[in-house]
UniProtKB/TrEMBL annotation:
Name of this chain's protein: SPTN1 protein
Entry-linked PROSITE patterns: EF_HAND_1, EF_HAND_2
Gene3D superfamilies: 1.20.58.60, EF-hand
CDD domains for this protein: EFh
Domain EF-hand: 76-111, 119-154
Species for this entry: Piaya cayana (Common squirrel cuckoo)
One example GO MF annotation: actin binding
Keyword Calcium: yes
Keyword Metal-binding: yes
Amino acid sequence: RQRKHQEIRAMRSQLKKIEDLGAAMEEALILDNKYTEHSTVGLAQQWDQLDQLGMRMQHNLEQQIQARNTTGVTEEALKEFSMMFKHFDKDKSGRLNHQEFKSCLRSLGYDLPMVEEGEPDPEFESILDTVDPNRDGHVSLQEYMAFMISRETENVKSSEEIESAFRALSSEGKPYVTKEELYQNLTREQADYCISHMKPYMDSKGRELPSAYDYIEFTRSLFVN
């Protein structure tokens, strides 16, 4: 992307040639060019727009790379966030209105309640307090990505905390927890739920250990968007 932006910048010299030719034609009082529908001013404006778009895209990509490196959010998750935003940004404006933003969140797995128009929507309003606090009616790509990255980071932290709690239940911090350990440390309802939802633990040779459950896979599956 940076290379493509540099190519666009390099084309500025060609635009300069066109501007010089346009100035020479004006001096010769040739004001109508039958060979093209484009004007020097129009081409300059389009080049400026393309240059600004390249800078915005490059800045956004740099932010995503930084987010991946510093927050632990996977590249796949970042790509999914970006792809969903572009899908709902029908007019390619680089921002979503509130309804498009809500649809985008639902597509990413957010369980937002359906409400009639005009009815209070406290759950969505609390999200807007973070993403669009001044309520200008739109969420930019940068605001959206920052929100999704922060939510994903919260999930990762929460997942690690619960994983640590299961590890504390397991004797010697093993990567699995036994049926006995679950019933000794949790309520019957909690232990029943874990056993019905956890996969049997498989050792490095692919053998299933008796009464052993994979709490790591179980915990991480809880925090998939």
